[in-house]
């Protein structure tokens, strides 16, 4: 299912969409699936599933710790696809967020075909820009997959126009300069970036900037079509090592708070 479906539903409810992220295989493959299903059940409209990678240069320490745990547990790309299949079966649009190297290693056409077969909506590629992505763009188009590229406060207007022209599904506006991570305040760079991006495209714009609670989600939802949350979900599970039940309960509570926030925005 295309991500645009979730944005259309949210727009019909006069609210932003809540987009939740966890890496596959964390705390283990089965536990990760349970966690993602809990997030869907508690109010996430779209799910991003991270493909754990050995050199996550754009991730902050929280997501790095979770990805490392998944790698040490032996997670494979096939496990990531199995996780996508389990979440997509709920009818929730499900994307993989990945660095480009694992996709190239797997085989671009094979990756696109297997992602589509698993019911995945598409791919978010934080370290791949459209001008260096002809192979992925062709494979995604062939398999009807969304292509989500990133824009940042440092992007020129020309760069934003080039990037959004190649996006499908939504545009990912990363409004924090530097690595990912939850923050106590939201960035004052986000609003202007969304405004500049809106001038270039009619696609929905999702904002990722370290949202960690419902009040911050409401603030971002006041100007963005989607609120992207990752590190806070990961931190919630990291805070409950070995306590599967407690971790899931806390994850549901966080998701419900965030879901209420995007409805206030």
UniProtKB/TrEMBL annotation:
<keyword id="KW-0456">Lyase</keyword>
<comment type="pathway">
    <text>Amino-acid biosynthesis; L-tryptophan biosynthesis; L-tryptophan from chorismate: step 5/5.</text>
</comment>
<protein>
    <recommendedName>
        <fullName>tryptophan synthase</fullName>
        <ecNumber>4.2.1.20</ecNumber>
    </recommendedName>
</protein>
<dbReference type="GO" id="GO:0005829">
    <property type="term" value="C:cytosol"/>
</dbReference>
<dbReference type="GO" id="GO:0004834">
    <property type="term" value="F:tryptophan synthase activity"/>
</dbReference>
<dbReference type="InterPro" id="IPR018204">
    <property type="entry name" value="Trp_synthase_alpha_AS"/>
</dbReference>
<comment type="subunit">
    <text>Tetramer of two alpha and two beta chains.</text>
</comment>
<dbReference type="InterPro" id="IPR011060">
    <property type="entry name" value="RibuloseP-bd_barrel"/>
</dbReference>
<dbReference type="Pfam" id="PF00290">
    <property type="entry name" value="Trp_syntA"/>
</dbReference>
<keyword id="KW-0028">Amino-acid biosynthesis</keyword>
<comment type="function">
    <text>The alpha subunit is responsible for the aldol cleavage of indoleglycerol phosphate to indole and glyceraldehyde 3-phosphate.</text>
</comment>
<keyword id="KW-0057">Aromatic amino acid biosynthesis</keyword>
<dbReference type="InterPro" id="IPR002028">
    <property type="entry name" value="Trp_synthase_suA"/>
</dbReference>
<dbReference type="InterPro" id="IPR013785">
    <property type="entry name" value="Aldolase_TIM"/>
</dbReference>
<keyword id="KW-0822">Tryptophan biosynthesis</keyword>
């Amino acid at each position: 299912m295309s991500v645009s479906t979730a944005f259309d539903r949210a727009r019909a409810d006069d609210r932003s969409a809540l987009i939740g992220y966890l890496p596959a295989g964390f705390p283990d493959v089965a536990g990760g699936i349970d966690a993602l299903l809990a997030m869907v059940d508690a109010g996430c409209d779209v799910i991003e599933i991270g493909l754990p990678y050995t050199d996550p240069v754009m991730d902050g320490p929280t997501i790095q710790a979770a990805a490392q745990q998944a790698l040490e547990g032996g997670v494979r790309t096939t496990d990531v696809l199995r996780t996508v299949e389990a979440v997509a079966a709920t009818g929730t649009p499900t994307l993989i967020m990945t660095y480009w190297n694992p996709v190239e290693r797997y085989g671009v056409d094979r990756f696109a075909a297997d992602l589509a077969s698993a019911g995945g909506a598409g791919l978010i590629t934080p370290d791949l820009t459209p001008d260096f992505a002809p192979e992925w763009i062709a494979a995604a188009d062939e398999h009807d997959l969304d292509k989500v590229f990133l824009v940042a406060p440092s992007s020129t207007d020309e760069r934003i126009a080039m990037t959004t022209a190649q996006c499908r599904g939504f545009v990912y506006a990363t409004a924090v300069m530097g690595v990912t991570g939850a923050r106590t305040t939201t960035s004052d760079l986000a609003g202007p970036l969304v405004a500049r991006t809106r001038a270039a495209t009619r696609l929905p714009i999702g904002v990722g900037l370290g949202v960690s609670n419902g009040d911050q989600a409401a603030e971002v939802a006041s100007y963005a079509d989607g609120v992207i949350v990752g590190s806070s979900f990961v931190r919630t599970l990291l805070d409950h090592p070995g306590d599967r039940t407690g971790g899931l309960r806390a994850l549901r509570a966080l998701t419900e708070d965030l879901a209420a926030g995007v409805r206030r925005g």
